[in-house]
Design a protein that fits this description.
Elements lengths: L14 E9 L6 E8 L3 E6 H14 L24 H19 L8 H7 L3 H8 L7 H7 L9 H5 L5 H4 L3 H19 L10 H50 L8 H85 L8 H74 L13
C-alpha cells in the first residue's frame, strides 16, 4: 500500500545545506550535502536530488514560478576541479539559497515531493522518485538553462536524465517526452488554441514578460560589458605603469643630474601610482562581476522561471484544445454514422453508434477535466504574477543600488589615486629655458 505523504509546514523554517561529503571513486564519485532544518529534520541529498525536486514541482504545481537552480558548465571542468573546496562551497551556497526559496514559496508548501525531499525517510523518498508520473526531465532541464549533464561526476551524469535514479519505465518516459515535445512544438508554431475567458489577460501577461526579456537581455549584455571594460582599463593602466617605470630608467643625458633625478623620481612615482590605480580598477571589475552582473543574472533566472510558469499554462491550454477538437471529431463521425444508419433496420447497426456515443461522453468528461485543470493553473499563474511584480520592483532597486554602490566606492578610490599621481607630477623647481 502506498504511503501517504503528510506535508510539513517549513514556511517559517530556515534550512541549511552543510557538511558536503564525497562518495565513490573515479567516474562514480559524487557529493552529498546535509539538508538541515534545526530541530525538525536532517537528510543527505545529492545534487541530482535537488534537480529531481525542481522537475517534480513543475509536475505537481504547474503554473507556479519555481526558482531556477543556477548551473555551471561542469562538463568543461576537469574531474578533479568538480571536487575542489571552492567549487563545492559555491555549489553548497547555491543549493542552500535555492531550497530556502522553495520552502518559503506559498504555492509549494503542500507539494508532496517537497515533503518527501525533506523527510528523514529514505524509503519514502525512494518511492517518491519511482512514481510513474515523473515529469519529462529533459524539457525541464532545457528550460532551467542547464547543460544536459551538469555536475560533479556520476551524480551529475544523471542530472541529464534524473529519472534514472527513480527507475521510471523507459516507455512511459519516452511517451511523456514525445507528448510534451509535440505540445511545445505546436505552441511555438502558433497553433490556434481554444478560446477561453481569460485569454486577453494572459495575452497582456505574455506581452509584459516578453518586454521584460528584451530589456533584460540588454541589461545582461551591458552589465557584462561594463565589467569587461573596467578590466580592460585596468590592464591598460598596468601597461602604462610599466612604460613609466621604463622611462624613469631611461632619461635624456644631461649635465644637470639634479633635474634628471627629479624626472626619474617623478616617473617612478607615477608608475607606482598607476600600479595602485590598476589594482583598484581590478577590484572594481571584480565587484562589477560579483555584485552587479551576478544580481542581473539572478533577476534573469527569475524572469525565466516566470516564462516557464507561462509555458506550463500554455501546455494545459493546448491539452484542452486537443480535448475539444476530439469532441468535434467524434461528433462529426457520430453524425455520419447516424446518417448511414437511418435507412437500416438491422438492430446491430446501432451497436457502433452506441459505442461512439460512449466515446463522446468520455471525450466530454476529458475536456471538462482539462478545462478545470487549466482554470486551476491559470489562477495560480495570476497569483504568481501579482507576487512577481513585487519581485521585479525589489530586484531592479537592488541592481541599481549595486551599480551605484560599486561606482561610489571605487570611483572615490580612483579619484584619490589620480590626485596622488597628479600631485607628484608638479615640478619642485620651475624649469628655465634659454632664449633662442
Amino acid at each position: 500500500m502506498a504511503q501517504h505523504i503528510v506535508p510539513f509546514n517549513y514556511f517559517l523554517s530556515q534550512c541549511e545545506v552543510i557538511d558536503p561529503q564525497h562518495t565513490g571513486e573515479g567516474r562514480s564519485k559524487y557529493t552529498t550535502y546535509c539538508v538541515l532544518v534545526a530541530n525538525v529534520s536532517a537528510v543527505r541529498r545529492r545534487y541530482s536530488d535537488f534537480q529531481w525536486l525542481y522537475d517534480r514541482l513543475h509536475l505537481e504545481k504547474p503554473g507556479a514560478i519555481i526558482p531556477v537552480i543556477p548551473h555551471k558548465r561542469v562538463r568543461l571542468l576537469k574531474t578533479e576541479t568538480k571536487f575542489t573546496t571552492e567549487f563545492v562551497a559555491e555549489r553548497r551556497a547555491i543549493l542552500e539559497e535555492w531550497i530556502n526559496r522553495i520552502l518559503a514559496h506559498p504555492e509549494l508548501t503542500d507539494a508532496p515531493s517537497l515533503a518527501a525531499f525533506m523527510k528523514q525517510d529514505d524509503e519514502l523518498f525512494a518511492c517518491a522518485k519511482k512514481a510513474n508520473d515523473f515529469p519529462d526531465s529533459s524539457l525541464s532541464l532545457a528550460e532551467n538553462g542547464s547543460e544536459q549533464a551538469g555536475g560533479d561526476g556520476a551524480d551529475e551524469a544523471d542530472d541529464a536524465d534524473a529519472s534514472a535514479n527513480g527507475g521510471t519505465p523507459a516507455g512511459k518516459q519516452r511517451f511523456t517526452r514525445i507528448r510534451r515535445m509535440f505540445a511545445k512544438a505546436a505552441i511555438k508554431s502558433g497553433v490556434e488554441l481554444a478560446k477561453v475567458e481569460d485569454e486577453e489577460q494572459f495575452a497582456d501577461i505574455d506581452k509584459y514578460v516578453t518586454e521584460l526579456e528584451k530589456d533584460l537581455a540588454i541589461l545582461v549584455k551591458q552589465s557584462s560589458a561594463l565589467a569587461a571594460a573596467t578590466k580592460t582599463s585596468a590592464a591598460a593602466t598596468h601597461e602604462i605603469a610599466k612604460a613609466f617605470s621604463g622611462l624613469s630608467e631611461n632619461t635624456y643625458p644631461t649635465p644637470d643630474l639634479g633635474a634628471a633625478g627629479r624626472l626619474a623620481a617623478m616617473l617612478n612615482n607615477a608608475a607606482k601610482g598607476m600600479l595602485s590605480l590598476s589594482s583598484t580598477m581590478e577590484e572594481k571589475a571584480t565587484a562589477e562581476t560579483g555584485q552587479i552582473e551576478a544580481s542581473v543574472q539572478d533577476f534573469e533566472r527569475d524572469v525565466q522561471a516566470l516564462r516557464n510558469a507561462l509555458q506550463r499554462r500554455k501546455e494545459k491550454h493546448y491539452d484542452l484544445t486537443k480535448k475539444l477538437n476530439r469532441i468535434t471529431a467524434v461528433g462529426a463521425k457520430l453524425d455520419r454514422m447516424k446518417e448511414v444508419a437511418v435507412n437500416k433496420t438491422d438492430e446491430n447497426a446501432m451497436i457502433p453508434i452506441q459505442a461512439k456515443e460512449g466515446e463522446m461522453i468520455e471525450a466530454k468528461e476529458a475536456a471538462e477535466t482539462a478545462r478545470a485543470e487549466l482554470e486551476a493553473v491559470s489562477a495560480r499563474v495570476v497569483r504568481e504574477v501579482e507576487r512577481f511584480r513585487l519581485v521585479v520592483d525589489a530586484k531592479l532597486r537592488h541592481i541599481i543600488s549595486e551599480m551605484g554602490g560599486v561606482a561610489v566606492r571605487f570611483d572615490d578610490k580612483i579619484n584619490d589615486a589620480w590626485g596622488t599621481i597628479l600631485a607628484n607630477t608638479q615640478p619642485s623647481v620651475e624649469p628655465k629655458f634659454d632664449a633662442v
